[in-house]
Amino acid sequence: TNTVAKSFNNAATPLIAYTTQLSTTSFTPLQKELLDETLSKARSFRMLGAPEVLEMGKLMIALNQTKKALDIGTFTAASALAWAIAVPADGKVVSMDVDHTELNRIGIPVLNKAPELKAKIDFRLGSAIDTLKSLIANGEAGTYGFAFIDADKVNYCNYYELCLTLLCPGGVIMVDNALWSGSVVNPENESSIAIDKLNRFAAADDRVHNTLLNVGDGIHLIVKKH
């Protein structure tokens, strides 16, 4: 039995459990450990990205062979770990969050078991907007091949614009929670309104190619045009 599918989808439909099981065959033992630790110990464990979403991101990094990835929303570092596995030995992941409580309590003890992966991750505490702007100011515009957006929803459009500046042509943005439990169809609260705004903006943005997928809680897959 796939422990990833079992632990994450114990209340899910058989179809979701099936797709998750067959999408996570490349999940490493360290990823499984961090997943299980997060689900058992984190107070807000539902903030964790779905395993199949993390595997999709690893595939995107493999496809465009990037060495540099952006990770907006660290939590326990499950997404940062996935990107660190996918980038080469000399690659780097810049992971951003306003709170490192769960990272320090749950993520770091697991990451310490793989120092070669941990060394690839640059954890930044504070506003992701400020961090992204600092990377641009440091001359890193156009040098990243992948960006994962999974933080506060009201800033999704701001994150998108800054990530697009930092991405090279052909670079990929993956926006998580792009369907927000279906509430984007008739958005009423601040988060669903903000997500709907980004979805519609990206769909009309002639700088990118995009497709909105019903995977996990929704993934908006966006590719910067050459």
UniProtKB/TrEMBL annotation:
<keyword id="KW-0949">S-adenosyl-L-methionine</keyword>
<keyword id="KW-0808">Transferase</keyword>
<dbReference type="InterPro" id="IPR002935">
    <property type="entry name" value="SAM_O-MeTrfase"/>
</dbReference>
<dbReference type="InterPro" id="IPR029063">
    <property type="entry name" value="SAM-dependent_MTases_sf"/>
</dbReference>
<dbReference type="GO" id="GO:0008171">
    <property type="term" value="F:O-methyltransferase activity"/>
</dbReference>
<dbReference type="GO" id="GO:0008757">
    <property type="term" value="F:S-adenosylmethionine-dependent methyltransferase activity"/>
</dbReference>
<comment type="similarity">
    <text>Belongs to the class I-like SAM-binding methyltransferase superfamily. Cation-dependent O-methyltransferase family.</text>
</comment>
<keyword id="KW-0489">Methyltransferase</keyword>
<protein>
    <recommendedName>
        <fullName>O-methyltransferase</fullName>
    </recommendedName>
</protein>
<dbReference type="Pfam" id="PF01596">
    <property type="entry name" value="Methyltransf_3"/>
</dbReference>
<dbReference type="GO" id="GO:0032259">
    <property type="term" value="P:methylation"/>
</dbReference>
<dbReference type="InterPro" id="IPR050362">
    <property type="entry name" value="Cation-dep_OMT"/>
</dbReference>
